[in-house]
Amino acid sequence: MAKQRTTYVCQSCGTHRSKWEGRCSDCGEWNTFVEEKTTPDRKGWVNGRNASGAGAAGARATGGGVGMDVYNLIDTPSLDSGQRTSTGIGEVDRVLGGGLVRGSYILLGGDPGIGKSTLVMQIAGRLAGQKAKVLYVSAEESVQQTALRARRLGLKDEKVELASESSLDTIMNTALEMQPDVLIIDSIQTVFTSDVESAPGSVSQVRECAARLLNLAKTKQTSVIIIGHVTKDGSLAGPRVLEHMVDTVLAFEGDHHQQFRLLRALKNRFGATNELGVFEMAGDGLREVPNPSEFFLQERTDDRYGSAVFAAMEGTRPVLCEIQALTTTSPLPSPRRSSIGVDVQRVNMLSAVLEKHTSISLSNRDIYTNVVGGLKISEPAVDLALVAALISSDRQVPLPQRSCFLGEVGLTGEVRGASLATERVKEAVKLGFTQIYLPASNQRYLNPSDYPKATFHWIHEISQMEAKFGGGPRPAKRKAAAPPPNEDAPF
Ligand code: TYD
Ligand code: MG
């Protein structure tokens, strides 16, 4: 029996140290070192990691002195369509880049209770319905609990094999024997291998278990889907370790208090990463939302001030969403700025541009902005909609009926062209929007006669927005201007 050694492992990046450190010198995180007992094997590997830091999987795949298979590029087997299987759920296929690739290794992360087990069980059911051999191993719930959920989701005749097991050694033995097409592990933080002494969920355990499953995926052509829990700060436990190993990282997000759920690919070796899948959680599981624009706008009415519709792009798909703004006189010396769904710095920047280039002054106003439906918008084309919502709220005048906005605003007040304007405009017109406000420079690519029902308003600069929407009686004179907002104040 080899002698046990105590090492300290950073739970954020997996770095080993012989002494405890308050702050990891590799990843910079504080208080992440945890004592773990390890047994170096004969080759001097510590839980599959040697002093040079190479991963366990690499060591196993090429170890043993056996030569590797070398292919010429021309006769390398390609990932043809035969190796991609539709999961039977269009929104999942879209995010995966066209279906599940044989032998791929997928990590699905998300908050507890968001619906990961539900989503994966629905995928399992659809795949099994197409005669794929699916093994669903839950290390969190009993077989009865898992079966109960499956029945609630309407699965009856689908032959999904269920198991409740947390020992990865046992899972691997069964999987090697059964040779399933798809193996599902719910979750990677609750399985463990007896070769590693530390507790399930620790970085060493997660890494070792994930490395073994990687080996299974790549040598047996089994598609492996692992579920991972997200920690308080929103990252997966053992994040970097896992993200490097898997082919695809999917994030399942949403507001617990609402029905919609969003599926995104954060990393994908087999497709684009910017696609968005939209679902609705119902009593009988997750339902696809094929037209997210209608979904995100379903509760919007035209008659409220502070609300603008933005034609966003989520991957290759245009999605209309509602941008809301609320401006109120601030009682604070440094007014509050709070934003959900768009970067608060962007809102600050736009209010500064408004201050400079129009007569609208928001410097002594509290500003709240929100993207309805939990979408997170990072593209600058949202600026024009934000500006419209801000002006509308500040002047308490609703924006014109059936209006839609797109375009970026620069620091000199100029309005810059948006990418993929045609797709955005098509979607807006399809949903009945007739007043389209967009950058003048997009005129080059758009032919208004293609959209007979729509009126195009070409915007060169932000002052035009004030001229269009800042009309009506000016609100009563405000108090003397407060000192400028303190940039460093925590909002
Ligand atoms: P679950 O898939 O267990 O979440 P996770 O695996 O991410 O922890 O789903 C949990 C929630 O989903 C639970 O609060 C109940 C809800 N739910 C429904 O609303 N409808 C359903 O059909 C199912 C199965 C769950
Ligand atoms: Mg679960």
What's the arrangement of secondary structure elements?
Layout: E1 5-10, E2 16-17, E3 33-38, H1 56-62, E4 84-85, H2 90-96, E5 100-101, E6 105-110, H3 116-129, E7 134-138, H4 143-152, E8 160-164, H5 168-178, E9 182-186, H6 203-220, E10 223-229, H7 239-245, E11 248-254, E12 260-268, E13 276-282, E14 285-288, H8 292-297, E15 307-314, E16 317-329, E17 337-340, H9 344-357, E18 365-371, H10 383-395, E19 403-405, E20 408-409, E21 415-416, H11 421-430, E22 435-439, E23 455-459, H12 462-469
Parallel strand pairs: 6-10, 6-11, 7-8, 7-9, 9-10, 17-18, 19-22, 22-23
Antiparallel strand pairs: 1-2, 1-3, 4-5, 11-12, 12-13, 13-14, 15-16, 16-18, 20-21
Structural commentary:
- The protein is α/β, with parallel strands linked by helices and 491 residues long.
- The chain is built from 12 helices and 23 strands.
- The chain has 3 domains: 5-61, no CATH class; 84-290, Rossmann fold; 295-469, Ribosomal Protein S5, domain 2 (2-Layer Sandwich).
- The chain has helices spanning 56-62, 90-96, 116-129, 143-152, 168-178, 203-220, 239-245, 292-297, 344-357, 383-395, 421-430, 462-469; strands at 5-10, 16-17, 33-38, 84-85, 100-101, 105-110, 134-138, 160-164, 182-186, 223-229, 248-254, 260-268, 276-282, 285-288, 307-314, 317-329, 337-340, 365-371, 403-405, 408-409, 415-416, 435-439, 455-459.
- A 9-stranded mixed beta sheet has the order 8-7-9-10-6-11-12-13-14, sandwiched between helices. The protein has a 4-stranded mixed beta sheet with strand order 15-16-18-17. A 3-stranded antiparallel beta sheet has the order 2-1-3, with no helix packed on it.
- Helix 9 (344-357) packs across helix 10 (383-395).
- The relative contact order is 0.09.
- Residues 116-117, 140, 186 line the site of magnesium ion.
- Thymidine-5'-diphosphate binds at residues 110, 112-118, 149, 152-153, 281, 283-285.
